[in-house]
Amino acid sequence: MADDLTDTIRDNAQGPAEAKGDSVSVKQHGLKDQIEADKYLAGKRAAADPTKGLARVKIVPPGTA
Fold first, then answer.
1. Is CB count within 10 Å lower at the N or C end of the chain?
2. CA-to-CA distance for 35 and 58, rounded, in angstroms?
3. Domain residues of the chain, as ranges?
4. pLDDT tens digit string along 35-45?
5. How many Cβ atoms sit within 10 Å of the Cβ of residue 38?
6. Hey, is 46 helix, strand or coil?
7. Single pTM value for the model
């Protein structure tokens, strides 16, 4: 899902922000809003997995190798 959102943001950044036709007008969310949404969703994914915040290390006291 993160790759899909990254691709969507990239595609939207390359395209026009607003397009108008004969009877149709289309406007995208701003790039800043899209990036903020991506950061928000990344934070939610990180908070959903409690093991991501823990680092597992082996502590070896000096002299006991």
1. C
2. 37
3. 1-17+26-65
4. 888 888 888 88
5. 15
6. helix
7. 0.51
Please list, in sequence order, all residues whose beta carbon lies within 8 angstroms of the beta carbon of residue 28, skipping any fewer than 6 positions away.
12, 15, 17, 18
- The pLDDT value recorded for residue 11 is 78
- Give the list of residues 6+ apart from residue 6 with CB closer than 8 angstroms, or none: 38
Q: Report the candidate in 48, 39, 46, 17 with the shortest Cα–Cα distance to residue 30.
A: 17
**Distance from C-alpha of 22 to C-alpha of 13, rounded to nearest angstrom:** 24
In the chain, the amino acid numbered 26 is V
Is-contact 28 6, C-beta < 8 A?
no
In order along the chain (65 residues), what is the average pLDDT of each group of 10 residues?
71 79 84 82 79 76 74
18 backbone dihedrals φ, ψ, rounded to 5° = -145, 140
